[in-house]
Automatic annotation (TrEMBL):
InterPro entries xrefs: PCD_sf, Pterin_deHydtase
Any one Gene Ontology BP term: tetrahydrobiopterin biosynthetic process
Protein's organism: Mumia zhuanghuii
Catalyses which reaction(s): (4aS,6R)-4a-hydroxy-L-erythro-5,6,7,8-tetrahydrobiopterin = (6R)-L-erythro-6,7-dihydrobiopterin + H2O
SUPFAM superfamilies registered for this protein in UniProt: PCD-like
Family in the record: Belongs to the pterin-4-alpha-carbinolamine dehydratase family.
Stated name of the protein: Putative pterin-4-alpha-carbinolamine dehydratase
Pfam families assigned to the protein according to its UniProt record, in alphabetical order: Pterin_4a (PF01329)
GO terms for MF: 4-alpha-hydroxytetrahydrobiopterin dehydratase activity
């Protein structure tokens, strides 16, 4: 399932806590979840950004992305809903798949 198939109903605090237990690479920061990936090289990080951008566009759900040399930080929130929804955790799972083998 990609993020476009997930509901944009706001998750409860309990639902967010449960979702984070199964996605341990992500940390809560207010109305967002955040993960940083440290790639072996700058271009590996850019390659990950490119792959995530394609997946995000296909899903119609887009992360905030910060690039600092070879560390790429993804911040997820459903802006239209004003907080965290299943779309964010769906995209988080996709990013985890794409980052597997990149994170050093
Ligand atoms: C029409 C389109 O689905 C919306 O503008 C989408 C696009 N991508 C988005 N991405 C994120 N993260 N939050 C949104 O509310 C959002 N809205």
């Amino acid at each position: 399932m990609d993020a476009s198939e997930h509901s944009d109903t706001l998750l409860s605090e309990a639902e967010v806590a449960t979702a984070l237990e199964s996605q341990p690479r992500w940390v809560r920061d207010g109305d967002t979840i955040v993960r940083s990936v440290r790639a072996a090289t700058y271009l590996d990080g850019i390659g990950l950004v490119d792959a995530v951008a394609a997946a995000a566009e296909a899903a119609g759900h887009h992360p905030d992305i910060t690039i600092r040399w070879r560390e790429v930080t993804f911040t997820l929130s459903t802006h239209s809903a004003g907080g965290l929804t299943a779309k964010d955790f769906g995209l988080a799972a996709t990013i985890d798949e794409l980052a597997a083998g990149i994170d050093d």
